[in-house]
Amino acid sequence: MDRSSAGISGQYARSDNGYNQPDDHTASSRCGRYRNATVRQWDSPPRTAPGRNEFYHSSFTRSSQHLQYRSVNPAQDFNTLTKQEIIDGLLSKSDHFGDRYDGRNHGQYASSIKKYTSAAKRPLNRAEQRQLIRVLQNFTATRSWSWRSLSTTLHSFTSAGVFTPHKPMDERVKLTQAALLSTLLDALIFKCNQKPAAWDIDARGIANLLWTTAKLVDNGQERTPGLNEAVVALLPHVNAQKDQFIPQHIANLLWAMAKLLDNVQERTPEFKEAVAALLPKVKEHKANFKPQGIANLLWAVAKLVDNGQTPGLNKDVAALLPHVNAQKDQFNAQGIANLLWAMAKLVDNGQEWTPDFNAAVTALLSQVNVHKANLKLQEIANLLWAMAKLVDNGHEWTPELNKAVAALLPHVNAQKGRFIPQHIANQLWAMAKLVDNGLRQTPQLKEAVTALLPRVNTEKANFKPQEIANLLWAMAKLADKGQEQTPGLKEAVAALLPHVNAQKEQFIPQHIANLLWAIAKLMDKGEWTPQPNAVMAGLLHQVHAQKANFKPQGIAILLWAIAKLMDNMKDRTPEFNEALVALLPHVNAQKANFKPLEITNLLWAMAKLVDNGQEPTTEFIEAIAALLPCMNALKDQFIPKHTVNLLWAMAKLMDNGLKWIPGLKETVAALLPHVSAQKADFEPQGIANLLWAMAKLVDNGQEQTPELNEVVAVLLPHVNALKDQFIPHHIANLLWAMAKLVDKGQEQTPEFNEAVAALLPHVNALKDQFTSQHIANLLWATAKMGELVELSVVTSMFKSLVYRISGSPQICQQAVLMSLWGVMVCCARLSLVSNANKNNEFEKHMDDLFTRLEATFPDNEEDQSIIAMAASWLGRPCPFIPRYQTVISQPQTFFREQLQLCIPSLQIEEEKSLNFLPPVDLLLPDHNMVIEIQGPFHYVGSDFKARNGSTLLKIALLQKAGFEVIEIPVNLLWNEDSMKLCIDQIKTRIDILPQGHGSVSLKSGWTDEKHSTVYK
After folding, report:
1. Average pLDDT, stretch 618-643?
2. Residue 68: helix, strand or coil by DSSP?
3. Do 683 and 639 form a contact (C-beta atoms < 8 A)?
4. How far apart are alpha carbons 476 and 813 in whole angstroms?
5. Angle at 454 between CA 450 and CA 457, to 5 degrees
6. CA-only gyration radius of the chain, Å
7. 857, CA 20 to 30 Å: which among 154, 626, 665, 950?
């Protein structure tokens, strides 16, 4: 608070932002425009007080000159200025001359008030204003006043803060303010509208008065009809006087126009003409602007651009940019803050990074550190906001920018208790944006964030809707980028949520989108409170209500948020469905306007929604179909992260039965070359998701083209290189993907083997961090790769994992089936090795898993087969008769025919299901012998060496059921000699009484799997 005036209590502190808007009821006295209004009289000396005439004729001139030219003693001079006899002298003079009085003494008095505040370096505080207004109740302007007196009086009083509406506001002060302002504006309007134009209207007065009207509005004065009419009356004179304005006038006028526009000034033709008249003058006078003028001009142009008045940085104003660099050392702290704010606002509205513009920004950033000690609160907040905007619009992390940010952060912490709500919101938003664009979370940044978070709770009731939206966005972004989950963060979120619900109808579409994005992110990071349902329901209702007003970016953000929320919530409320139904038609309608990031987010969201049970309605399918051509058209603009998410989304859509959507497979094919081109830029999560997507695509019928195979080939070396950076989720997905690719014929290259070898040790190391689904994937994948993985590695892994899944009460049926199949393969491999420990513990887990499925009746062949095989292994009755499709291959038919020709009496049956097991190729019932023609899909790789898990399980089950199994790799049938050798060996086996049952391969004669392991 200000206590500089003697005799004033100083109890009324001036508002930080200067000037809050009051409830204004305009009143006037004497010759004002509102002549019927009356002003309640204060207790004051009568106008006929003794000494009044003496004072006016002799003392006032000396007194006013004395006040203007000697050094100011604030307390003494202000008390002198507010003596009633001074005002009485002014009134006497006005009465004496009547219509011939030009108001010069009133102007001199107003100028004295301004000089007092200039000397004090601040406007009047509340107490001083009240003291002055008390004596100004009869201070009245008339239409006879000269232009100079009018402009001086109005400009001086406004500059001094006479019209500033302090809060709380005394009703009598408000009425007197309104009356005085009304008479001044009435005289001003009259003078401006005279025909012919008044001879004494000059350029300086026009500049000062437009500046004054802007300052009145900016300080909180209500935009009364009189004030609006005054602006309208002044504007034509700007064009008329344009050649007379000096550089200071031009700067002040454009500042005023920007301020008026920012405060809801109507863009009339006169307003546009005035701006158009002034802009060329900037270039004309570019060498003559002082530092403050340059700062005001660029700030003004940025405001005009931001409010749609001009299309961009006018070439005339662009001429100022070299002068910013040249005068960089002469700007004060406020000028630097305003200029950087202006530059940020301009680039945010499309300004190109020209060399002059870039140089100006660099020059200004270098001065932030120099002036850091002199920055005020608003300037600190504005600078952080500006730097965040500059970086968000492409400014590089130069040394100047890094130093400027580092210089500001300690001041945030030091001044934390003094920031107003707007500053708090802007600074947290700015820090989140900076972090989002690559700023490292240094201790200084973390301290600044931590310092501001408690202030969110303190000021929670004072934030505006936009500030609430920005704050929650900022906290979500900081949490997403690794901000420590402190109690302060959770308390700040909890403090804001009730206000989201309370103000839900005041949020514009952008706020709604950002709030739902923030809530989705916070929930995804575990930063949530028990209140989400009510908050989300309120916001989702607003999505439906404002559906027609969302821009493309908002539509993309909303669908992403809805998908993410549904992914993290158990219950799906009706509001989610309503919001989704409301948004989907707009995806199709806006399809041509989506940017690459937005297309990525939309398709990711659609895939995630389907994966969480969303019914693919007609509108849903149409939205996907509308996006696919746009994705193809913009394929060269997707960054690595987009490529990953898009291919993941395509794979998810296909995996959920939507592979039939026109253009889906073609779009995938168009994206694949970009994986190879961007291979060096993928993060660990991207590598894992891409290989998962490749496996899913192939599993769902995507053709294994050279491009797809090349994607797998270029990604595999990165698995080895990044092996220590994969989290458990990535490891499980990667091993699943590689097993699935092997199952679909992926070539077993050295890089493939190295990738598997790199991942397997991490399974045991991270065993306690895998979820039930991860474990199911790992058991299935390791089993599927069969003899590629050494048996000792398999058994060690299974021992560390299987107990967790067989004892887990909450696990889906699909995970149980995958785990059961994996355990069976492990047991099968052990049974095929004559000297292996059979490990009854695994069979116990198999029994536990089978018991969970005993009452289930799956409708697909693969799941039926798993249950039937488990029942066979355990000697338990199968709960159903499984259905198997029989496919007789050409090599199988050819070998059967050759075998029958060689042994005509031999009884041979084909595709026979034994003990509810999958059909065998050839059965020799008289000899209890099974012949399996092993094609490439029975092996890991194409070299017919390492058998896969499915083959090993089938052989072990047949052997366990009492059959001798002969395996014939199909490559042995490719020439007559090797095929004859196979038939001769079968003849030998038939003629010799079996001494035991086992499996024999006619390629190398092994009877167990110890010779067939490729990877150890």
Report:
1. 94
2. helix
3. no
4. 35
5. 145
6. 41
7. 950
Q: Which residue has the higher pLDDT, 133 or 53?
A: 133
> By C-alpha distance, which of 475, 554, 488 is closest to 518?
475
386 touches 348 (CB < 8 A): no
Res 315 pLDDT > 80:
no
DSSP assignment string, 793-859: HHHHHHHHHHHHHHT-SS--HHHHHHHHHHHHHHHHHHHTSTTS---HHHHHHHHHHHHHHTT---S
Average pLDDT over the chain, rounded to whole? 86
Name the 3-class secondary structure at 946: coil
Give the helix/strand (H/E) hosting 933: strand 929-934
Tens of pLDDT, residues 442-485? 999 999 999 999 999 999 999 999 999 999 999 999 998 887 77
ω into 196 cis (within 30 of 0)? yes
DSSP letters spanning 539-593: HHHHHHHTGGG--HHHHHHHHHHHHHHHHH-S---HHHHHHHHHHHHHHHHTGGG
Rounded CA gap, 140 and 33, in Å? Answer: 11
The answer, yes or no, to whether residue 423 has pLDDT greater than 80, is yes
Virtual torsion, Cα 613, 617, 620, 625, nearest 10 deg: 120
Q: Taking a C-beta distance cutoff of 8 angstroms, is the pair 917, 869 a contact?
A: yes
Residue 1006's pLDDT is 37
Q: Would you say 698 and 731 are in contact if contact means Cβ atoms under 8 Å apart?
A: no
Q: Which amino acid is at 903?
A: I
pLDDT at 706: 92
Strands of the sheet with 909-912, listed across from one edge: 909-912, 920-924, 929-934, 964-969, 999-1001
Whether the Cβ atoms of residue 876 and residue 868 lie closer than 8 Å to each other? no
- Please identify which residue in the block is written with the tokens 């195979």: 709
Reported as a single tens digit per residue, the pLDDT across 109-129 is 999 999 999 999 999 999 999
pLDDT category at 529 given cuts 50, 70, 90 is low
Mean pLDDT of 287-299: 93
Whole-angstrom distance, CA of residue 636 vs CA of residue 656? 27
* Alpha-carbon gap, residue 982 to 28, rounded angstroms: 117
Lookup: tokens for 324: 């910013």
Closest listed residue to residue 317, CA positions, set 299, 330, 333? 299
Q: How many CB atoms lie within 10 A of CB 733?
A: 22
Residue 435: C-alpha distances to residues 431, 476, 727 (Å): 6, 12, 23
DSSP letter, residue 929: E
Between CA 899 and CA 879 the distance in angstroms is 37
pLDDT of residue 60: 38
Between CA 443 and CA 451 the distance in angstroms is 12
Distances, alpha carbon 62 to alpha carbons 101, 174, 249, 758, in Å: 19, 32, 31, 95
The whole-angstrom separation of Cα 56 and Cα 909 is 131
pLDDT, tens digit, 9 for 90 and up, residues 358-372: 999 999 999 999 999
Beta strands 929-934; 964-969: pairing state: parallel
Is the separation of the CB atoms in 873 and 846 below 8 Å?
yes
The average pLDDT across 321-348 equals 94
pLDDT value of residue 836: 67
Distance in angstroms (rounded) separating the CA atoms of residues 440 and 303: 31
**What does the alpha-carbon distance between residue 900 and residue 974 come to, in Å, rounded to a whole number?**
18
Whole-angstrom distance, CA of residue 293 vs CA of residue 313: 17
Q: Which tokens go with 990?
A: 């038939």
Among 321, 237, 241, 309, CA closest to 275 = 309
Shortest CA distance to 151 belongs to which of 194, 104, 195? Answer: 104
Entry pTM = 0.79
| 715 vs 696: CA distance, rounded Å | 15
Bond before 717 cis per omega within 30 degrees: no
Torsion sign, CA atoms 245, 246, 248, 250: positive
Q: Which two tokens stand for residue 735?
A: 């091993």
